[in-house]
Structure formats: structure tokens, C-alpha cells
From TrEMBL, chain B:
The species this protein was found in: Cyclopterus lumpus
Listed Basic and acidic residues bias regions: 414-428
Coiled-coil residue spans: 283-310
Descriptive protein name: tRNA (adenine(58)-N(1))-methyltransferase non-catalytic subunit TRM6
Compartment(s): Nucleus
GO cellular component, one term: nucleus
Assigned protein family: Belongs to the TRM6/GCD10 family.
Alphabetically ordered keywords of this record: Coiled coil, Nucleus, tRNA processing
Length: 327, 428
């Protein structure tokens, strides 16, 4: 059924019996066993205690974390032993130290979009927190904002947007790859943010975002963003808004800027942001031996300083921002 | 017509609004007050003459300081152009108009576009320049003779760029992309309880409030006599946002942590005896003082109530104070598994914080970072980076709290891994 249906359909329109109030639609194959909506852990709201159904982060050590779906009766294998969800996780406070079967221990952390970004399963190349943070501020995202995004990809930026626009905003996200669109839909529901997002499986360059005149901000991370600029303009509010396009190649940036100018966008600004991580360490510098000298008893000096990694990430992509004036 | 006005009403400039004036890359925050002059880019004008116009509009500054809406610019004529500059002599004599001539034109009330056209017409070398050189020439003249002001709604983005450009010293030289990183790393979102300690004129506090949208609560920890919030006003938040803002003086932090802070009312009941007539004046003054003190006590009590549960969801520090004691003191108010972010203009104090936190335990994912921002000019055949903006930007220490383990020895089983191991950070 899926392969033959036209792509330009929002998921919820396939199941007309379900309420069209913004909640997402479950594919017919999933179980009927819906969990009650509880004000529980979600990507957009903190909670204190670990509960069944949460998606948590197990912290094993520096640069060593894994996402875990908490489920009554389930177990998770780690290199420090087994974690039994029912006894070790459910009901414990987030941030607790959990001892595993072999005697080693881990911490269980509350999910945040930043932790999700470095732990999510990659289906595409993703945006990392440095770019996400810049985009969030430059698009002026805040609670209540309506945002259009394409492509959804692996949902890294999507989760960050949802966190910033909750509880009163909405994200319209478009993904032209059917399986990725379905996977994203699943994840949003599992992460209890589905009420804030609508996933559409269509080609934004041909069919737009599926909404017009509602968006405060539009984000494009697609191969040919210049083809989507007019759709971005149509999706945005009459009063105006902000747009951002992310492209790895400068040629894409040039074409996109031309399209933005043609469509009447103003205040164009292209930039890139790079992150430098400073490694704090103690180094020992030997002192020279110039011969017998009472005033210099030491042989070396300890220094607390930082070093930069041998290979620094040099480029992710160019971010182009612009403002849509009132039309 | 009346319908249109009602529909657009929320987007119209009103008296009393906090706005941001813009010309090119220069910004200034002002409040629109009746008959109050504003000075911006060496010009005086009256912002209240823009009341009733739409936000985002651009105005010409007419004589008398009156702002007049500017008509959208016409497309530029295709000028005759040359191919390169091999024959162009830079002898300073190509412009036929003198300074005095230009002043006369200005006095005649010529608009900036018209003055620029005059300059172009009177330049003997203009038509020999390449198209790109002509664009650059016109851009340069626009910058010099431009007489326009755009009025914008304030936002974190605009105010951060403004402060960084105008008064970086007031915000500890925090570059706007660093502020962006802080807000995201601290997971600032609606409904949480966030502690803020800053000496950035209220910019950081206002940015946190903007990201919380009026939901949840923000507690400003402040040094000295009273909280500084000038920057917060510039955001122009609706009144109800201020209900979520609390303050707590740091001089009471130790008492609060020790559980010895007494916020109960200590005033003796007011005497009910008759006051002689001439004592009324002093009586009212004393009453006023009492009311103010009571308000202060109430605020202290409400902030203390929010803090003493030690269950805050986020901590943001950005100040000229040494960050180490600030962080070690305030981190105690956070729940476990919550983010904290510390900004410092200098790296060394954050190295100290890092070291002390490692010794203390109770934190994971500690990272000392800074960002490097580069802007680009993107024009056909003229795309290249602009000035580099590294240097003055500051550093950030970020991390996540976990349950503090009293029994854990100082050298934990999770010592830092050697740097040779590739870190999973941004990028490919």
C-alpha cells in the first residue's frame, strides 16, 4: 500500500477516523496498546524519576554513552554488567549511580536534545549542537514559534527545535525519503513529542511544506535549497519571519542567496561556526640544567593547561540566514 | 480599511515600546517615548514620529527629526562599465563635486539616493570602473550618506549583536554565537526552573527569559545591593513574563545552604496609639519604608522557597567574578542530571573550575569549549570570507550534574582518557 500511494500526503490524512487535531497517526501495524499520556519524561519537559517508557541515557564514561528505552522487565547489557530495568532503573532518580551485575557502575541521565544528538542512530549525516545552537538563536526560536523544516533526516535538529518551541509551538517537517519519514514519526511518538510535530513525506522543492502563511521560521538542509526558497516564502507568515539554509558547498550557498534576493528576502547573512574543544591536562616541562645552582632545586615544572586535539573538525556547512519582510 | 488596521495592530509600533534602531550592521536599543529625542549614528531624531507604523519599516530622517516611511528602492539602472582598472588614475581629482557642493545639496533637502546619483554623475572615472567596482563605490557612498533608520522588534539575536558591537565590555566580551551555545547547552526551555548569575547588563537573563516564553521560573542570583536588569527591559517582554522572574542576593547563599536563612516577618506590630498631627509626615515615610522592606522580604522568601528544594533544572553563569566559587556555590541548588554552563572571558579560571569539579565529583561530560565564527560575503563572482572574528569571544565550561557520591575516592575508576583517543565531537 505504501509504495503506491502518492507521496504528497500528510500521514494523518491516511487515517481519517483518527482526530485531526495535530496528533500524529499510527501506522495500522502497531499495537493498540497506547500508553496513557502522563506528564512524564519527554524531550521537552524534565521529570525527576525514571519511568517505564522513558528514553534515557546510560553514561559509562567520558565519550561513552548509550540511549536506553526503559521497559518493565527488560535488561541492558553493558561492559560493566547487566542493568535490570525493573529493579535498577524504574523509580530511581535521574542522575543516580546504578551498579551493574559485574560490579561496575554507570550513571543514568535524563534525555536532552543535546544528548540525543550525540547518541541517536544515524540515518543521514546530522547537524551537531554547535550549528543547532546558532540556528536556534538566529532563527529566533522560542515557545510558540511555528517552524518548517526540510529534510527531517535523522531528527537531530528536529528534537532541538521541538524543545525550543514547546509547549505552544509546532514543527512541520518534510522528508522525501519514505522510510526516514516513517522512522522519524515513530521516534517523535516514542519521545512523547508527537503532539508538537507533523511529518510529511513529500518533496519540498515540488510540493512545499504542506502549510502556507503560518511559519515564523523555515530551515532548509537539502541538496538544492534554491528550489525550495519560494515554498519557504509561501509557508511563512505574511508579517515576516526568518529563514536559514544549511549547505556544505559554496556553490549551493551562492545559488541560494540569489534565490533569496529574487524572492525579496532581506538581511542576508552567511556564516560558519566551528567548535574548539579544549582538553584540560597537566603537563610537565623539564627545566634546563645549566650546572650547579642553589636557586633552582626543581627538575621540572607542572603546568595545568589545555591542548587542542590533533585534528580539529574544520567544516560542517555554511549557514545562510535571511529575513522575510512583510508581504 | 479598518479591518486591515485591526489585523496589523499587533505589528504596529506603539508609544512606550522598546525597539531597536538599525542602520546596516549598527544597532541601538531605545524606548519610544513622547517627544523624546534619540541619537543614533550622529543624528538626532524623534522615534515617536514612527508610532503607528509597522515594525520592520525603514524610515528617512527628514529635517526636524521626523521619521518618514521610505518607499521601496527602485531597481538600479544598468550603467555603462569598464573591464579592469589599468587606465584609471587615482589622483583624487575624479570627483567634480566639492565638499561644499555636497553640503549645499544636503541643505536643499536632497534625499541620500539623489546625492549618490549626483556623485556618480559627477565622477569622471565611474563609467570606466568594472560593474563590481561600481557596486562597491555606490555601497561605500550609501554607507556615508545614508539617512535611514529601520525600526525592529527586539530579540535575543538582535540585542546580542548590538551589545557585542556597541558595548562588549558590558557583556564580558561575549560574542553572540557564544551566547547561542550557552542557551542550547543549558537546555533552556519552557517550564523549567533556571538559575542565572550574570553581570552582562541583563542580556543573558533576558535571553534565558525569551527562551522560556513566560513559562517556568528564572531566579536571578545577584551580587551587591540589587539586581541589574537594564538589558532585560530592552527585550520588551509582556508584563506576565516578569511574574516568572525572581531574585536572590548571593550574600544569603551560605545561610540558605546551611538552612539558617530566616525569611519570616520580624517587624513588631505597628503601634495603634494616636499620632500627633505634625508627626504624620514622618509616619508616612516610615510606613513607605516598611512596605518596601516587606516587599523585599516577600521576594526573598519566595526565591528562597524555590531554591531550598535544591531542584533547579539549569544553571547559567556569565560574569566578571571568578567563576570557580560562583559555580561551586550555586551548583548545589541543581537536581542531579541537569546541565550547567559557565562563561568566562578568560580560559584559566575555567581550567580551575574543571579541575575542582573533577576533584569534587558529581559532574559528567565536562567540556571546555569556544567557538570560532566566520562571516562571508556572497555575491556572484565575489564570494569570500569577511573579517575574521576569532579572539574576543570568551570560553564556556559545560557539564551535567549527577548524584554526588560521598563514598567515592578522589581518583575515580573513570579517569580522563588520554587525548590521543579521538573525541566524538562536531563534524565528520
Amino acid at each position: 500500500m505504501r509504495g503506491t500511494r502518492a507521496r504528497a500526503t500528510a500521514f494523518r490524512s491516511r487515517h481519517p477516523r483518527l482526530p485531526a487535531n495535530g496528533c500524529s497517526v499510527e501506522p495500522a501495524q502497531t499495537s493498540r496498546d497506547r500508553r496513557p499520556t502522563v506528564l512524564a519524561m519527554s524531550f521537552v519537559e524534565y521529570s525527576d524519576l525514571i519511568q517505564d517508557g522513558d528514553v534515557a541515557i546510560v553514561y559509562l564514561g567520558p565519550e561513552s554513552m548509550m540511549p536506553v528505552k526503559v521497559k518493565q522487565g527488560a535488561q541492558t547489557q553493558t561492559r560493566y554488567g547487566v542493568i535490570r530495568h525493573s529493579s535498577d532503573l524504574i523509580g530511581r532518580r535521574y542522575g543516580s549511580k546504578v551498579t551493574c551485575s559485574k560490579g561496575g557502575w554507570v550513571y543514568v541521565l535524563h534525555m536532552t536534545p543535546e544528548l540525543w544528538t550525540v547518541n541517536l542512530p544515524h540515518r543521514t549525516q546530522i547537524l551537531y549542537t554547535t550549528d543547532i545552537a546558532t540556528i536556534t538563536m538566529m532563527l529566533e526560536l522560542k515557545p510558540g514559534a511555528v517552524v518548517c523544516e526540510s529534510g527531517t533526516g535523522s531528527g537531530s535538529l528536529s528534537h532541538a527545535i521541538l524543545r525550543s518551541i514547546a509547549p505552544s509551538g509546532h514543527l512541520h517537517t518534510v522528508e522525501f525519503h519514505q522510510q526516514r519519514a516513517e522512522k522519524a514519526e515513530e521516534e517523535f511518538k516514542e519521545h512523547r513529542v508527537d503532539r508538537l510535530v507533523t511529518v510529511r513525506n513529500q518533496d519540498v522543492c515540488k510540493d512545499g511544506f504542506g502549510v502556507t502563511g503560518v511559519a515564523d521560521a523555515v530551515f532548509l538542509d537539502i541538496p538544492s535549497p534554491w528550489e525550495a526558497v519560494r515554498h519557504a516564502k509561501a509557508a511563512m507568515k505574511r508579517q515576516g519571519g526568518r529563514v536559514c539554509s544549511f549547505s556544505p558547498c559554496i556553490e549551493q550557498v551562492q545559488k541560494t542567496c540569489e534565490a533569496l534576493v529574487d524572492q525579496g528576502f532581506e538581511e542576508l547573512s552567511t556564516l560558519e561556526v566551528l567548535l574548539r574543544v579544549h582538553d584540560v591536562r597537566t603537563v610537565y616541562l623539564p627545566l634546563p640544567d645549566f650546572g650547579p645552582d642553589e636557586t633552582a632545586p626543581q627538575t621540572s615544572v607542572a603546568l595545568k593547561t589545555t591542548t587542542l586535539p590533533r585534528e580539529m573538525p574544520g567544516h560542517t556547512g555554511y549557514l545562510t540566514f535571511a529575513t522575510k519582510p512583510r508581504t | 480599511m479598518a479591518d486591515n488596521v485591526d489585523e496589523d495592530s499587533p505589528d504596529r509600533i506603539k508609544a512606550g515600546d522598546y525597539v531597536v534602531l538599525k542602520r546596516g550592521d549598527i544597532f541601538k536599543a531605545v524606548q519610544i517615548q513622547p517627544k523624546k529625542k534619540a541619537m543614533f549614528e550622529k543624528q538626532w531624531f524623534l522615534p515617536d514620529t514612527a508610532v503607528g507604523q509597522l515594525y520592520g519599516s525603514t524610515f528617512d530622517v527628514a529635517p526636524g527629526g521626523i521619521l518618514q516611511p521610505r518607499k521601496p528602492k527602485d531597481t538600479e539602472d544598468a550603467n555603462e562599465a569598464g573591464t579592469d582598472n589599468r587606465h584609471i588614475l587615482d589622483d583624487g581629482k575624479s570627483q567634480k563635486l566639492t565638499r561644499d557642493d555636497i553640503e549645499i545639496l544636503k541643505g536643499q533637502g536632497l534625499k541620500d539616493q539623489e546625492i549618490i546619483q549626483q556623485l556618480v554623475d559627477n565622477s569622471s572615472t565611474f563609467r570606466d570602473k568594472t560593474k563590481y567596482a561600481q557596486d562597491k563605490y555606490i555601497k561605500k557612498k550609501k554607507k556615508k550618506y545614508e539617512n535611514t533608520v529601520t525600526i525592529l522588534r527586539p530579540s535575543c539575536r538582535i540585542l546580542a549583536m548590538m551589545y557585542h558591537g556597541r558595548e562588549p565590555g558590558k557583556i564580558c566580551h561575549m560574542r553572540y554565537d557564544m551566547l547561542a551555545q550557552m542557551l542550547t547547552l543549558a537546555n533552556i526551555h519552557a517550564g523549567s526552573k533556571v538559575l542565572v548569575f550574570e553581570t552582562c547588563a541583563g542580556l543573558v537573563l533576558g535571553s534565558v527569559m525569551e527562551r522560556m516564553g513566560g513559562y517556568g521560573s528564572v531566579i536571578q542570583m545577584f551580587p551587591g545591593g540589587g539586581p541589574v536588569r537594564a538589558g532585560v527591559e530592552s527585550f520588551g517582554f509582556p508584563a506576565h513574563f516578569h511574574d516568572t522572574l525572581h531574585e536572590f542576593p548571593i550574600c544569603h547563599v551560605n545561610a540558605l545552604l546551611a538552612g539558617t536563612l530566616d525569611t519570616a516577618c520580624k517587624d513588631p506590630p505597628a503601634g495603634r496609639g494616636q499620632c500627633p498631627y505634625f508627626m504624620f509626615f514622618f509616619y508616612f515615610q516610615a510606613q513607605e519604608r516598611k512596605v518596601k522592606l516587606e516587599e523585599k522580604r516577600k521576594k526573598l522568601a519566595s526565591a528562597a522557597a524555590l531554591l531550598e528544594g535544591r531542584n533547579a533544572d539549569g544553571l547559567v553563569i556569565a560574569s566578571r567574578f571568578h567563576p570557580c566559587p560562583v559555580l561551586l556555590g550555586l551548583i548545589q541548588f541543581l537536581s542531579p542530571s541537569r546541565p550547567f554552563v559557565v562563561y568566562s572571558q578568560y580560559k584559566e579560571p575555567l581550567i580551575e573550575c574543571f579541575t575542582k569539579l573533577k576533584e569534587r565529583g558529581g559532574t559528567v561530560n565536562l567540556r571546555l569549549t569556544d567557538t570560532w565564527l566566520r562571516r562571508y560575503q556572497v555575491l556572484p563572482n565575489r564570494t569570500h570570507p569577511l573579517l575574521l572574528m576569532s579572539g574576543a569571544g570568551g570560553f564556556i565550561l559545560s557539564g551535567t550534574t549527577v548524584a554526588v557520591d560521598d563514598s567515592k575516592p578522589a581518583n575515580s575508576q573513570r579517569a580522563e582518557e588520554p587525548a590521543a583517543k579521538r573525541q566524538k565531537v562536531d563534524g565528520r
